[in-house]
Each structure stands twice: as structure tokens, then as C-alpha cells.
Sequence to fold (323 residues):
Amino acid sequence: MARKAQVRGIGGYVPDKVLSNADLAEIMDTSDEWIVSRSGIHQRHQAEDSVMASDLGVIAAQNALAHAGMNIADIDLIVVATSTPDFAFPATASVVQHKLGSSHGAAFDVQAACSGFVYGMSLVTAMLETGQANGALLIGAELMTRLLDWQDRSTAVLFGDGAGAIVLSAEDVDADAPHVIKNYIRSEGQFTDLLYATGSANAAAKDAKIHMQGREVYRHAVTNIAEAVCTLLEMAELEVGDIDWFVPHQANKRIIDGVARKIGLPAEKTILTVDHHANTSAASIPLALNEAVQNGQINAGDLVMTEAMGGGLSWGANLIRWS
Ligand code: ACO
Fold:
């Protein structure tokens, strides 16, 4: 028996408003055919101007707590992964903590762009295993459409808003019982200029822009993600064939397919939500996990591999025996 981080619940939330590719084609020179063939994206959700990342995160967290059958009193660590925080400071996690009615434990943000959830899992696992917390809420909450320059068709079509949350607790378990098995995170800051955002996610500011060298990002993504998945399997002494569900960061269907091909993973083991959520950055993996659990794909005992790459460049993966 050892003290490990165990998944207790998962939840998600996307704003009601949907922007289809056809809607975008009315405001910029693009087409449904171009967007679908390059990215697999059909639509994305967009929050109203008055909404902040914490608002999305709170609803996702409430859904995850309900799914776990737990309440906020059981949580002594709140981590929010976001590139679109409510404020420069305090942390969006502090705002979420207050909105959830909690005033105990610790709360802070993680900034690792689209890899935020994967980084957050690594951090939260370590804190639970080492006794720094007993119950954790990890939230990915993003208002990516606020960072878009709607004149730049090469990035404006790729992103959406949403939030996902996972509840974990520290439990003494046997090696083969459900728990977070291992995490792997990497960064190569020399590639910052391939993918970065300037300006504010505040709806009133309207000064934000995502700068992306799409082809270069694509090339690095397939290589780095495949490396992360294979390294993590090696660390855990497992093989690709052991994976029950592959839950990738939902940036682009072509990247996801490219990685699956490279590591030899059958398409039917991949959870895909990029078609209806687009790229929701740090929220994309918990949103995809939530859908896969809700529709009965991921079940207790399944071996789940997540992965992400994003600005930094940062990347990584999590290997979880689901509860
Ligand atoms: N609609 C129509 N045409 C467009 C659009 C659009 N929305 N955007 C660009 N084009 C045009 C370009 O202007 C260019 O035209 P030209 O040949 O006349 O100059 C043409 O399409 C090809 O442009 P490319 O940028 O070369 O297109 P590419 O095939 O590389 O696809 C894409 C672009 C989809 C961005 C691709 O590079 C990609 O998937 N990159 C990965 C980026 C990504 O997913 N980033 C997300 C964040 S990182 C992450 O989360 C992993």
C-alpha cells in the first residue's frame, strides 16, 4: 500500500452560445471545408462578454464535485490552469475558492498554456502523494476566444471557450488499484516565438492576439507528444497496447491522428471532442474526459493516457488508472 492520488470525479461546462464554421465564414474569408479539412473543427462555444474564467471554472468544479459525491469542505487544494485569468492577480483559483464558498486550504494558478491541465495533474499528484493536501480540485478554465484577433483567419478559427474539472484525493492503495500512475512534463523555452499571445483576456480590452507559426507548431506537436507518451509508458513499464483510452489535448484532429499513427494506437481508442469544442487550451482534456465518462466509454479500471503540447513550447502526459 502507498499514498497515491485517486480520481474521484470529473465535470465540464461550455457556454451556451455556439459559433459554427458557417458563422465564421460570414465575418472572415474562410470556409467550413477549409476549417474541417485542416483541423477537424466544426464549431466552438463562446462566452458572453461579462463572463470570466472563474465563472466557467466554478460550474465545471460544481459538476465534478457532484459527480464525486463530495462537497467543497472535502477540498484543501484548488489549482486552476488558465491562460485567460480573471486578473493579473490574485490567482483565478482564489476567486474560484471564494465563489465555491471555501476559505480553507490553498489555491493558486498554473500557467502552461495548452499543457496546463497535464502540468496541473503532475503538480497535484505530487502534493497529494506527499501529504501537502488531501482533497484536490484541478480546473482548466479558458476564454480562448478573448485572445483572438478576428482579422487573423489562421488562428481565429481554431479556438473556443470552456472549462473542465477533476477531483482527486489522497488514498492508501495497492499498486494495481485505481490511481494516477505517473506524469511527465517538459518545456523548451527557446521556441516561445512559435506560439504566444499578447494582450488581455478582458472583454473590454480588445487588444489580444495569438501569434502562431502553424506549420512549425504542428511539426513539434507530433514529435513531442509521441515522445511524451512513449517515455511515460516506458517509465510505467507498460506498452501502447495496454492503453484503454487515449485522451489527447484537443487542438487539431490532424495532430491527434498523426500522434496515434506514430505510436501505433488504434483510432477507436481515441477520445475526440475537437469537432464540437475546438481548442479550449487547458480545458480541453478535462472536457474530453468528462464526455467520455458521461457517455460510458471510460470506466473504472481503464488505463487512460492524456497528452498535450502548447505554448512554451511546453508538453507532457498523464497515465491514470481510472476509478
Ligand atoms: N480559411 C481559409 N484559408 C486559410 C485560413 C482559413 N481560416 N487560414 C489560413 N488560410 C490560408 C493561408 O492564408 C494560406 O494561403 P496561401 O497559400 O494563399 O498563402 C493557406 O490557407 C495555407 O496556410 P497554412 O498556414 O500553410 O495552412 P496549413 O495547412 O499549415 O494549416 C494550421 C494551418 C491548421 C494552423 C496547421 O498549420 C496546424 O494545424 N498547425 C498546428 C497549430 C495548432 O493546432 N495550434 C493550436 C495551438 S498549439 C496546440 O494546442 C498543439
